[in-house]
Amino acid sequence: MLTDLVAALDIGGTKIAAALVDDRGRVHTRAQRPTPAHEDGDTVMRAVTEVVAQLTVSPLWSSVRAVGIGSAGPVDAVAGTVSPVNVPGWRRYPLVERVASATGGLPVELIGDGVAITAAEHWQGAARGHDNALCMVVSTGVGGGLVLGGRLHPGPTGNAGHIGHISVDLDGDPCPCGARGCVERIASGPNIARRALEGGWRPGADGDASAEAVAVAARAGDPVALASYRRAAQALAAGIAATATLVEIDIAVIGGGVANAGEVLFAPLRRSLRDYAALSFVQRLTVTPAQMGADAGLVGAAAAALSRGAGAAAAGV
């Protein structure tokens, strides 16, 4: 019989995923909806309640003890609210209260999506065995989280390590967060595609203008596509090096859809990192792809929920 089951939610600008996860990180039941990111807040919440409802009809639901949420941020774990940059309908939205109501009053743990991915990669993935790590998701947005001294470091509100909103171009484009030249404004998938289009790249016959399509063009040698990925890699390298200099991480793990570009992203990233990580104590910093794949946010959110009780030791958080 399964014990220490938790419900996990992974909420981003593209999709809302949910699953039942056990204390070994195994996923047993799944549900998913597209995120209606440009609709009002209650419409977005309805998509969340729909995926939760799919979990509650599982015969395993009676074993669920808590809920973990990894959400696009910023989040406020103290207040239980979220204000995702890429979901404008949610500003100080009381997500914890609404999810608790939808799950019959189960305890809810909220962390940022980057922190959730960090928890997963440190528990079972590429950062396992590393005491000081930065893990990132580079997708519709750019998020991140930190492991310091062998433990997940979400910070007081659950946002520590949110590298996407470090400014790496002081006179750069305005970012929706209100700052300028943020890593996310340069390195996220939509901005890679936007920059390529502005530079003259054109989609193929299928009309696909995504970052994935730009990566395909870059592999084929398209100079504009390659330049857009080089610029993204440079921004990521600057942010990673700044983080390493500040807290002495020894590994940076990168996941998310943009990381699926492979060496189109990682080769220029490693070259740029040599330029930015110049001090002696960060020169051994390594960059590696994430290992947890599409389940990283769910497994990390589950780890956060497990950490509330008996599952903490198992989850290693």
Automatic annotation (TrEMBL):
Signal peptide: none annotated. SUPFAM superfamilies: Actin-like ATPase domain. Transmembrane segments: none annotated. It holds the Pfam family ROK. InterPro entries: ATPase_NBD, ROK, ROK_cs. It comes from the Bacteria. PANTHER family: N-ACETYLMANNOSAMINE KINASE, ROK (REPRESSOR, ORF, KINASE) FAMILY. Belongs to the ROK (NagC/XylR) family. This is ROK family transcriptional regulator.
